[in-house]
């Protein structure tokens, strides 16, 4: 069958290439220790699944309201008020098919072809594809580990043009696991105000912040609520990736437009997933906290092990479940290191370059396996780096 021109030469992203290799190895009975996937290893709590079953039996089997069920939109608001002191009205919430579907709908509603969006590198790579798919222009702002992967205000000012419409933020960040401090966020907020930009703030990892750091909700900064579109979801906080449940919190007018867009996209989000999510948001705070502690423990232990390896240095765990150690001192590129690690040590990680050029020299490690598996992977990686250092000068 003849494909559309844009799909004639399908480029597979660095992340997908790694995922596909892992799948092939599993099929061949040669499963690696998989630290490549950004999905919690915990299954959804059984009482959340029970809530979906009960809703099905009560007859919640019809099309959902386009913006999402009111009880879920209320639960989203209550969750953000409780956890982050961010106040929103249920009419300012729109439910999406996972967090990932939100930007596509938002770009459709907000952007004209050729409009520019500022995005910080290393970035969550599907976002770059989504901007391009929307016929907008991604303006990539490089960041450096020496500045904790934060953009400088000078770089932002240099990048802005009359066509710039918005900024895409993702904190805690996938892939770096880093957050920005209040001062850095306030600088971005002032910049957004100065240039009249919207800010899409993907805060899907808000529940995973470690080592006495706190999540700062961008919309809570001075004057920011009106120009911020917050993206959240239950995939990470409530281990509900398969339920495909995300949301945006934004201006009511935009919610209305998203409803119009939804008519020709998906006509709402799975009714039973919404019922499960409303239950989850209202009942699982303790579990969310417990899992966050487990992730913190894993991240700190893995970071310490990484720092004991030759040629590897890893910054402090701050958020999400990702570590982004530098492997520059091994002399290998991110791709060389990751593929050699997979074939020689049976450990899968994602090359940092899959998240843009600023990711070159790094690898992304997802601490989404039990501590036993993670430490076993660290043993293998240690042996691998020892061999590397024997083979070439570090
Ligand atoms: N944003 C970021 C930064 C992510 O890492 C992910 C998932 N890896 C998503 C959004 C999408 O999450 P969901 O499963 O809810 O679509």
Q: What is the strand content? A: 5-15%
Ends apart, CA distance between termini: 51 Å
Could you please say which CATH topology of the largest domain applies here?
Aspartate Aminotransferase, domain 2
**Biggest β-sheet strands, sense, barrel:** 7 strands, mixed
Shape: globular
Helix proportion: 40-55%
- Rg result: 21 Å
Runs in which pLDDT lies below 50 for 5 or more consecutive residues are none
Q: Mean pLDDT across all residues, rounded? A: 95
> How many E strands?
12
Order of helices and strands: HEHHEHEHEHEHEEEHHHEHEEEH
CATH architectural designation of the largest domain: 3-Layer(aba) Sandwich
Whole-number total of structural domains: 2
Strand order of the largest sheet: 2-8-7-6-5-3-4
Counting H and I runs of at least 4 residues, what is the number of helices? Answer: 12
CATH superfamily placement of the largest domain: Type I PLP-dependent aspartate aminotransferase-like (Major domain)
What is the CATH C-level name of the largest domain?
Alpha Beta
Ligands, ions, cofactors: 4'-deoxy-4'-aminopyridoxal-5'-phosphate
Structural class: alpha/beta
In words, what does this structure look like?
The chain is α/β, with parallel strands linked by helices and 394 residues long. The chain has twelve helices and twelve strands. The strands form three sheets. Strands 2-8-7-6-5-3-4 form a seven-stranded mixed beta sheet, sandwiched between helices. Strands 9-12-11 form a three-stranded antiparallel beta sheet. Strands 1-10 form a two-stranded parallel sheet. Strand 3, helix 5 and strand 4 (137-142) form a beta-alpha-beta unit. Bound molecules: 4'-deoxy-4'-aminopyridoxal-5'-phosphate. Residues 38, 98-100, 124, 170, 174, 202, 204, 233, 235, 241, 246 line the site of 4'-deoxy-4'-aminopyridoxal-5'-phosphate (PMP).
